[in-house]
Design a protein that fits this description.
Length: 437
């Protein structure tokens, strides 16, 4: 046994491959072959997209669970604990289960080095292999075509949205990014697209591989009412549905796409109306306009690109307050920091920027300068997110609100600080690698 502790395994995996990101399927395919891995017999849904992936996975999982099905989910990155990435019926797998999977992967991977995410993907597939599951949901980490998750042929592929992000790896325009995301499509199988704005490359890839493309606004649609909404696809109509429990108008589009996925799965996994209603009301997802409480109130959001920042701006605008909106923020250096600031211009009164750790992190002064270039009013910088949190707490009045956002890493550190402030001994939990995308 290489290690007996999960954190030791994760630290080792971080440095195993020379590059943190090295897109490609060959290493994972070869390792799975050596492991003798068998594809799940149950339906597999793969979810890609620039924004909305996590919400779509959470919605699909919630509806299937409410219908009484057993569901395995693979998502990334995590917020508080690595185990969050691999769940069985919403319950994270144990350290022992992960370590057993890591041992098998380590023995089978030679002579290949694997990235952190490839180890993660392989562990998820092994954890699901012998479980009596009715459905497996796999969230793409980055892109789609060359993402490790794409070694599995999906029964239904869902692409939630296309926007500019990860341009260094996926391309600098929406058409190129769309082609990468659509790489999860398979011939003769449904491919759902969850936005009204669709790059031409999505339809082009669907045509090239022979996938059956279902786009929001074309093959299916939704209409909102004052207190409910309806979904239809020309054959089935579901009226009077409760709003999704996740915040933001975009969640109606995500929910509509998930209902299209369920319609495709209906011959194998029928979901009754009552389960749909319960699932919409019961869905949960940390870090997406999540209210932490407190006075003044704290909200955290993992928004880390301009499209997600525009959604965050809309959510803030829908909830006006008498005081000011203050931000604790930080982004990784490879993000469109200026674009994020521009998307939130006029919605945040004052910003405090905290430093992040890791090879993709930029110096806090550089992040602040780029935010200013996008129109942000920076009132202070801090060496860490914890220090930024303390500074903003001292600055805010009871009539204000505090929004903390910019990265999974940012939100994770805010949650640690918030917990430590509330804990009797003033301490937070030990951290694990997050490896935010």
């Amino acid at each position: 046994m290489r290690f007996t502790d999960l954190t030791q395994w994760l630290r080792w995996q971080e440095g195993l491959h020379p590059n943190a990101i090295d897109l490609g399927l060959q290493r994972v395919s070869d390792t799975l072959q050596r492991l003798g891995w068998q594809r799940p017999r149950c339906p597999v849904v793969t979810v890609a997209g620039t924004n909305g992936k996590g919400s779509s996975v959470a919605l699909l999982e919630s509806l299937l669970l409410q219908a009484g099905y057993r569901v395995g989910c693979f998502t990334s990155p995590h917020l508080r604990s690595y185990n969050e990435r691999i769940t069985l019926d919403r319950q994270p797998v144990s350290d022992a289960t992960l370590i057993a999977a890591f041992e098998r992967i380590d023995a089978a991977r030679r002579p290949d080095t694997l990235t952190f995410f490839e180890f993660n993907t392989l562990a998820a597939l092994l954890c699901f292999e012998h479980e009596p599951l009715d459905a497996v949901i796999l969230e793409v980490g980055m892109g789609g075509r060359l993402d490790a998750v794409n070694v599995v042929d999906a029964d239904v592929a869902l692409v939630s949205s296309i926007a500019l992000d990860h341009c260094q790896w996926l391309g600098t325009d929406l058409e190129a990014i769309g082609r990468e995301k659509a790489g999860i499509f398979r011939g003769g199988r449904p491919a759902v697209f969850g936005s009204r704005d669709m790059p031409h490359s999505i339809a082009a890839v669907a045509g090239e591989v022979g996938a059956s493309l279902l786009q929001l606004g074309v093959a299916f649609d939704y209409r909102r009412g004052a207190h409910d909404w309806e979904w239809s696809n020309g054959v089935t109509r579901l009226a009077g549905l409760p709003p999704p429990a996740l915040a933001g108008d975009v969640q109606f589009a995500n929910a509509a796409a998930v209902l299209a996925v369920l319609d495709c799965l209906r011959p194998r996994l029928p979901v009754p109306r009552a389960a749909i209603e319960r699932g919409l009301a019961d869905v949960r997802l940390a870090g997406r306009f999540q209210h932490l409480g407190g006075t003044p109130p704290w909200i955290v959001d993992v928004a880390h690109n301009p499209a997600a920042a525009r959604t965050l701006a809309a959510q803030l605008a829908e909830r006006p307050i008498s005081g000011k909106t203050l931000a604790v923020a930080s982004m990784l250096g490879d993000k469109d920091i200026e674009g994020i600031a521009a998307a939130l211009h006029g919605h945040i009164d004052a910003w405090i920027v905290g430093g992040l750790r890791g090879e993709r992190a930029a110096p806090v002064a550089d992040v602040a300068q780029r935010l200013r270039a996008g129109g942000a009013h920076i009132v202070a910088t801090a060496a860490s997110i914890a220090e930024a949190c303390q500074a903003i707490a001292e600055l805010a009045s009871s009539a204000d609100r505090i929004i903390a956002f910019g990265s999974f890493l940012t939100v994770a550190e805010v949650l640690d600080w918030f917990d430590a402030r509330s804990a009797p001994d003033g301490t937070a939990r030990d951290g694990q690698p997050t490896m935010a995308h």
